[in-house]
Design goal:
It is a single chain. The chain is α/β, with parallel strands linked by helices and 314 residues long. It folds into two domains: 158 residues, no CATH class; 140 residues, Rossmann fold (3-Layer(aba) Sandwich). It contains eleven helices and ten strands. The strands form two sheets. A six-stranded parallel β-sheet has the order 7-6-5-8-9-10, with helices on both faces. It has a four-stranded parallel β-sheet with strand order 2-1-4-3. Helix 3 packs across helix 10. The chain starts with a helix and ends with a helix.
Length: 314
Amino acid sequence: MKDGLGYYARYAWTDLKGRLRLTLNSDKRHLGERIVRGVRSGAISRESIFAASLRRDGVGSQVLSRLSVEAAASNLGLGYAHTPFEEIAHAEGDPTAWRDRCEAFFALGQGKPLTRNVSLPHIGLIEFATNPALWKTPHLIAIPHMYVYCDQNPEIYDRVVRRPTRSSLQGRQLHIAAHVRRGDVSASDVSHRFTSNRAVLESLATVTGLLENTGLAFHVSIYSNGKPEEFAEFTDMGHRVELDLGALETIEHLRDADVLLSAKSTFSYVAALYTNGIVLCEEFDRRPLPSWIPRDAKGAFSKTSFLEKLKLRA
């Protein structure tokens, strides 16, 4: 009941803003929910197609936004069209080559039509969601993201993420990878996205202790973009610290890890979505997949859950 009241209160507020010709850019989550409710109720044509609208931010955000739109379309029974990257921030080298590298690396929208080849009328989220008179006519709807839906149903990402085959743990060294977010966060700056070294070390100590008890060999790598002096505690423990890798190379290492300690970032979340390893995650804006194991603020997590998942991968 509370959610329903909140939805209709936001509906009325958004309509008022529209009549006053105020921007609705801050209402995109609500407008996405309008679309979901419209599809479920049959008010929106089932022949409509979702597509991700163009963005200009970093690779992690652009990948996750597309995955959320495709996952929502799949779960709602609608078609999906792929919108290739046009520009990606934080380019490594030539911007056009960087964009093309990212497109090839993630291979999003495989088997889906390209947006530019869809003959339906193309329309943006705000225009479509605020004009129900259009809903019965099939459209291609360009949506910035569908986090409003995927955060409630994170397991639907499994419908669209293509993960590499996981090999047996036996007869080889396991790779434990920890993504430690630094550079743009600290204990005093964007602190809600910061995780202390102590908390990460606590998680690593638990993981390595459990692996030692099972007799499995392993090595530990830390991935970040901070300053070397920030990671002395990790090097003192003998862990390898990687600070100078490119974004795609970092995601590849995180994705391929047998155990991944993800950070509170979209970049890290994307790597965790693509891995077949055991994910130890922190509370974050995006909801974790049901298969992931949560870590608390001090780095503690369920040892029982970890050992159960380790046994399944043996």
